[in-house]
Inverse folding.
């Protein structure tokens, strides 16, 4: 089942992180920035003046619909690079980024990025690979979303979180080592919070998932994967 779970991963820290040596060199003289829980890092449309590496904490990338509803595109933890698209083309930010919990980030300007890339041209090859991976993953998600039920979308969101932040515990169960609220899962799944709450509560009664001290645990992994389309 490991191969199946890997296919649920979208743009998480394992995908966006650069190789260690390049990342260390790129951020060697980075400025440190601290965010409090729910604090905005940048908004869609803001100037793309640099990128960030998450040192601690948790961030979410989201967009707002015309009626004010939030859609969480991703949740990122330590090691992830945020805002790298604007480093390439200098275009405005395409999403809003908030702190889910207190976070510390390293920031480098676009000018510093370009100067480092001039002396380390292999950086462009890695960035191109990362961007290609992102396009493929976005295509996979778009296709999956076209066919999934509401339950399937919630299952897909949980599996993404479990892939990024999960830890195997007893009897094949997988604990998500981040405290995620029902509203966040709903926003990741692109459904109303009431629907996500109903589905999650039903799954808890059916012993498909459980919650311990604020942490979700997938107890029946094969069932959740089945609900998410078995991808």
């Amino acid at each position: 089942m490991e191969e199946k779970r890997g296919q649920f991963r979208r743009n998480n820290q394992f995908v966006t992180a650069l190789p260690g040596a390049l990342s260390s060199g790129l951020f060697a003289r980075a400025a440190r920035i601290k965010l409090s829980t729910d604090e905005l890092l940048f908004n869609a449309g803001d100037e793309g003046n640099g990128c960030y590496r998450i040192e601690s904490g948790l961030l979410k990338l989201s967009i707002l619909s015309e009626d004010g509803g939030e859609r969480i595109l991703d949740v990122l933890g330590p090691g992830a690079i945020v805002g790298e698209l604007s480093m390439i083309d200098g275009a405005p930010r395409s999403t809003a980024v908030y702190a889910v919990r207190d976070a510390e980030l390293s920031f480098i300007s676009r000018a510093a990025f370009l100067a480092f890339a001039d002396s380390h041209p292999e950086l462009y090859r890695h960035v191109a690979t990362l961007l290609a991976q992102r396009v493929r993953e976005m295509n996979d998600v778009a296709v999956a979303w076209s066919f999934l039920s509401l339950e399937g979308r919630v299952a897909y969101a949980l599996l993404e979180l479990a892939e990024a932040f999960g830890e195997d515990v007893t009897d094949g169960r997988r604990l998500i080592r981040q405290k995620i609220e029902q509203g966040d899962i709903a926003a990741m799944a692109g459904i109303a919070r009431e629907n996500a709450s109903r589905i999650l509560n039903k799954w808890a009664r059916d012993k498909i998932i459980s919650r311990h001290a604020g942490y979700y645990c997938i107890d029946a992994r094969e069932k959740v994967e089945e609900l998410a389309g078995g991808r």
Notes: The longest helix spans residues 122-147. The chain is about 45% helix and 25% strand.
